[in-house]
């Protein structure tokens, strides 16, 4: 089969088209954040059960883990613009059902679980379709800056969503808050309808009849083969999985660290959350302005080292040095951006456009799968050895993983050795 990896050149005036689409997606994210806050608040107020909240979190996570490895191959076969629009529409439709249930007093925990599952399933398709479209719309030299802008948006949403959600819940019925998400989804879909999003070259070639079509099973196998045959890519995904396993529990244990180790209360916990969010915003602004080192993997690895150092600072400071611990959390926010942003840009710039849906899906599924596993392990370990132990383990693990990445040639040279794998995308 012929190689169809050459993409059409990105026009010089790429920015207006991309940022128009980006603005629509940003509106949709705002609505989704408000829905998440509103439903968590409703479940907390209605049941007061930690088990209900934990089950809701697991249900919202499972579709990302179970569907993503299979969704990526479909994203690479289908029109990515249509995938994003249908996913947004499915999420909005699920929210409309929930609005009807609340408006008619038929709401239930089970119904919320089902809707959360449907919304998550839509996200399993939307996320890889969106991420893999960026590389076809943005020049490679600007990908890290765009990643920084996205990180800034996420950090801003983390800060403003809780107070904005609380304000809206105070003046609107819950179905009114949910309706905002439907409105923002309609805005996102309407903008997408008028934006031209380039398609991967293989899709174009198959549509023109110049390349033979492959089956879904062939595409699915090709995605796994592509990842396994590229040691640098496999190494990056494994590092992401291990870091998620080590760091996620540290955040779930934050309330206990603040109250038990630093003898604080809700004010101190709020300061921790706020400084982390501000750190993400600052890091995103820094990355969007700077772009990172020319060799982007260096920015990412040093960012992971920074995550490790920030974790150690926050988790191991004595109670009287709480203000230094806050500095560690601020550092964590900045370094999370420096680790994640360039890594996303690397994948967008180096992974074949025809493979990006599968690669982003596999990366997301692997990282998400680590979260419930790590929480199962972290609880008993922390009860046995103390809460601070997990911060020590997680911080040291991040530093060692990043240093090993810097010493492993396949990872260190991931931005230049991908050409050797081009044939893998079309030989299945």
Keywords:
single chain, Growth Hormone, Chain: A, 80% helix, 428 residues, disordered N terminus, mainly alpha
Description:
The chain has helices at 14-47, 50-77, 80-103, 109-134, 143-171, 174-193, 201-208, 216-228, 231-252, 254-261, 266-290, 296-316, 322-350, 356-385, 387-407, 409-412. The longest helix has 34 residues, at 14-47. Mean pLDDT is 86; it is low at 1-6 and 419-428. Helices cover 80% and strands 0% of the residues. α4 crosses α14 (356-385). With 428 residues, it is mainly alpha-helical. It starts with 13 loop residues before the first helix and ends in a 16-residue tail after the last helix. The chain contains 16 helices and no strands. The chain has two domains: 14-143 and 153-208, Growth Hormone, Chain: A (Up-down Bundle); 216-420, MFS general substrate transporter like domains (Growth Hormone, Chain: A), CATH 1.20.1250.20. The relative contact order is 0.15.
Write a brief caption for the model.
The protein has two domains: 14-143 and 153-208, Growth Hormone, Chain: A (Up-down Bundle); 216-420, Up-down Bundle (Growth Hormone, Chain: A), CATH 1.20.1250.
Which blocks of ≥5 consecutive residues have pLDDT under 50? 1-6, 419-428
Q: Class of the largest domain in CATH? A: Mainly Alpha
What is the N-to-C succession of helices and strands?
HHHHHHHHHHHHHHHH
Examine the secondary-structure arrangement and name the CATH architecture of the largest domain: Up-down Bundle
Instruction: Report the mean per-residue pLDDT as an integer.
Output: 86
Instruction: Tell me the strand percentage band.
Output: under 5%
Query: Percent helix among the residues?
Result: over 70%
Shape descriptor reads globular
**What would you give as the CATH superfamily of the largest domain?**
MFS general substrate transporter like domains
Helix count equals 16
Number of domains: 2
Q: For the record, give the distance between the C-alpha atoms at the N and C termini, rounded to a whole number.
A: 9 Å
Major beta-sheet overview = none
Q: Please report the total strand number as a whole number.
A: 0
